[in-house]
Amino acid sequence: MIGTRLKGLALLALSVLAALGCRAAFTTWLVSDRVTYRAYETAPPCRGSAPVRAYEDCLRTVTFTVDATKVDRGKRGGLRATLSGTPYWDGVVVFGDPGPVLEELRPGDRITGTVWRGEVVSIAESDARGVRQRTSDAPRDEPQMPAALGTGLGLLAALALVFGGARLLGPGPNPWFAWRPYGRRLLILTVSVSVALGLLGVWTGLAWWLVPAVEAVVVSLGAVLIYGWDRPEGDVRQTGIT
Q1: How far apart are CA 242 and CA 172, in angstroms?
Q2: 57-92 pLDDT tens trace
Q3: What is the Cα–Cα distance from 59 to 43, expressed in whole angstroms?
Q4: CB 26 within 8 A of CB 146
Q5: Which element (helix H / strand E) includes 114?
Q6: Is residue 197 classed as helix, strand or coil in its secondary structure?
Q7: Which of 90, 125, 148, 242 would disulfide-bridge 84, Cβ 3.0–4.6 Å?
Q8: If you count DSSP H runs as helices and E runs as strands, how many of each does the chain have, helices first?
Q9: What is the rounded CA–CA span in Å between residue 59 and residue 117?
Q10: From CA 95, how far away is CA 83, in angstroms rounded?
Q11: Digit-coded pLDDT (tens) for 31-56
C-alpha cells in the first residue's frame, strides 16, 4: 500500500513537470520562434560596405571561400561546410539537407552568404543562377512542432494526474489504471502522435492552432481503442468495481 501511494505521489510530481513543460512550449518556445522569424523576414539589408561587429540586426551579404565540405548522408551531423574569408563569421556552417548548393561545393569555391544576428542563415552560388540554400541556423516558421509537443506534454500531464490520483486516493490497485498494459500504451500513443503530428503539420503547412485539437481527438480515440481492445473485466469483478 505504501509503495502504491509513493508511486501516486511520483506521478503527481511528473504531472506538474509535464504541465510546466506544456506551458513553456506555448508561451516561450512557440512565441519566441514566431517573433524571431518575423524579425528575420522583415530585417532590412545592412548599410555600409564593411561590418563593424559580428552581431547586426540586419541582413549582411558577404563572400566566403569554401575550405572544406562534409556531405555524409549516413552519419548524423555530416552536412556541413567550413567557410572563411570574412572578418567575423568564419567557421563551420551546418545544414539540414545536402542540396541544392552544399552538395556541389568544392574546396576553393567562392560563395555568397547571408548573415543575420551573427549567424550564417543562407548561402548562394556566386553566379547568375542565384540558387540559395538555408542553413540550420536560419529562422523557420514552423510553429506546428512546439504546438504538437506542447499539447503532448499537456496530455501526459493529464495522464499522470489521473493515474497518480488513482494510486494516491484509491483503496488499492485499480486495474483500469495499471501501468501494464494501459499506462504504457497510453504513453506510447501520446508521444508517437505528438511527434508524428508535429512533423506532418510542418510538412503540410497545417495551421498550428489546429494541431492541439487534432492531437487531442486522435489521442482520445486511441485511448478508447486501447481500453476497448483489452478491458480488465475479470480484474474489475474481483475488485468490486462496477
Answers
A1: 15
A2: 999 999 999 999 987 765 555 799 999 999 999 999
A3: 6
A4: yes
A5: strand 110-116
A6: helix
A7: 90
A8: 6, 6
A9: 8
A10: 13
A11: 999 999 999 999 999 988 888 899 99
